[in-house]
Amino acid sequence: MSPTPTRVTAVDTYDIRFPTSRELDGSDAMNPDPDYSAAYVVLRTDADDGLEGHGFTFTIGRGNDVQVAAIQALRHHVVGRRVDELCADPGTVNRDLIGDSQLRWLGPEKGVMHMAIGAVVNAVWDLAAKRARKPLWQLLTDATPEWLVSQVDFRYIADALTPEEAVGLLRAGREGAAGRAATLRERGFPGYTTSPGWLGYSDEKLTRLARQAVADGFTQIKLKVGADLADDIRRCRTARGAIGPGIRMAIDANQRWNVGEAVEWTRALAEFDPYWVEEPTSPDDVLGHAAIRTGVAPVKVATGEHVQNRIVFKQLLQAGAIDILQIDAARVGGVNENLAILLLAAKFGVPVCPHAGGVGLCELVQHLSMFDYVALSGTTENRVIEYVDHLHQHFIDPVVMRAGHYTAPTAPGFSATMRPESIAEFTYPGGSFWAADLASDKGAAA
User: Fold this and answer.
1) Domain that holds residue 51
2) Residue 280 covered by a domain
3) Residues carrying an active site annotation
4) How many domains, in total, are found in the chain?
5) What is the mean pLDDT of the chain?
6) DSSP states of 6-75 as a string?
7) Is the pTM of this model over 0.90?
8) N or C end of the chain, less CB within 10 A?
9) Predicted confidence (pLDDT) per residue in 324-375, tens digit
10) Helix, strand, coil shares of the chain as percentages rounded to 5?
11) In which element (H, E) is residue 436 found?
12) Among the listed residues 277, 270, 264, the one whose alpha carbon sits nearest the alpha carbon of residue 222
C-alpha cells in the first residue's frame, strides 16, 4: 500500500506592521509617513519534515489588512494540493491563481490581487527550495533552461520574447555558470544603499550616513527628491560633498512629477552628477518615461518597483523608455513573473538593479539577482541591488552585507521566514507592541 501523499493543510495569514514612520525611516516625497508592513503568509503541510512555505508582500501601513484579505481569498486554490506536485511545478499554482476569473476581474494581473498572488507563489517557491535543501538562487541556477521556461507565462509578451528565445538565452547563460557561482560565493553581489537618503533626515544625519556608506564599501548611494527643488539642491550638494566625486549618487522622485517637470527638475540637479533618476513619473506612463529619458540624458532613467506586471515592463523595453530595470520581488506575481521580466531584460540588454528595502525585500530579491548573474546575464557590470538597513533582525536568515556586497545565502529557501517572536510582537492590532501602543493612545485620549 503506497503512503498517503502529503498535502497543504493551511494557508495562514498575518497583518504585520512596524512603526517606522516615527523615525521617518522610509520617508519620501510621495510617502511621508510609511509604517513598513508585510501581508504575511505561511503554507503548512502534514509532512513529517515540518517544513513550511513562507511568503509576503510589502505595504506601508493602512491597507495591509486589505492585502491580507486578498491573500485569504486565494486559500481554496492551495489547501489540499499535493506538496510534491506543487513544489515540482510552482507554475501550476501561479496559473491557477492568475486564472481565477472572478478574482481576475479585480485586476487583471495588477494591484492588490496580483500582489497577493505573488505572496502565495513566493511561499510555494520557499517551500520548494527548502524541500530541495537549496537556497532559492541555487535552485534556479541548477534548473534546466526548459524547466525554467515552463514556469513562465508568455501570454501578452510573446511578441517580444518567445519560449524558444528564452531557452536560448538560458542555454547561453549556463556557459561559465559554475565559475560565476564560485565567484558569487566568494565576493557576493554588489549593492547600493538608500539608508542616508530618506527625505525626512537632517543634513547632519544625511552626511553622517553617506560617509558611513562609503566607509562600509558601497560605491553608490541614493537620495529621495521631489518635494522642494531648493531643498533637493541643498541635500544633493551636501551628499556629493560627503561622498566625493568617485561614488555614484542616484536620485529617486517616487512618481512625484509630470513629464515636463521631471525633465526640468532633473536638469536642475545635473550639476551633482546623478547616475540615474528613479520613478520620475507614473509607473504606468511608458511614453512619458521615454520622453524623460530623451530629455535628461546622460542621466539614466530607472523604474520598476511599482510596475504592475510583465506586460508594462515589456512596453517600457520596447519603447526604449528606461536605462535601468528595477524588479521588485513582491510587487508582481512572484518568482514566475519575475523570471519573465528578467528574461525580457536580457533580451533587450537592459541591466536589472532591483528595488529592495521595506520589510524583507532585500532578503527576497537578492536570490533573483544572483540567479540572473550566474545563469542568465552572466555579469554584475552596472548591476546593483538596493540595500536599506531596516528590519533585517526580524528574519531567520537575514541579509549579510560585506564590503558593500550581498553575501550569497546558504540556508535552504527564499530567506522569507520571519522570527515567531517578531510575528507575535508586531501583528496588528493584537500583537504585544500594537496592543500596548493602542492602549496607550486610548489612555492618553481619556
Assistant:
1) 8-134
2) yes
3) 224, 355
4) 2
5) 95
6) PBEEEEEEEEEE--GGGGTTT--SS-SS---EEEEEEEEE--TT---EEEEEEE-STTHHHHHHHHHTTG
7) yes
8) N
9) 999 999 999 999 999 999 999 999 999 999 999 899 999 999 999 999 999 9
10) 45, 15, 35
11) helix 432-445
12) 277
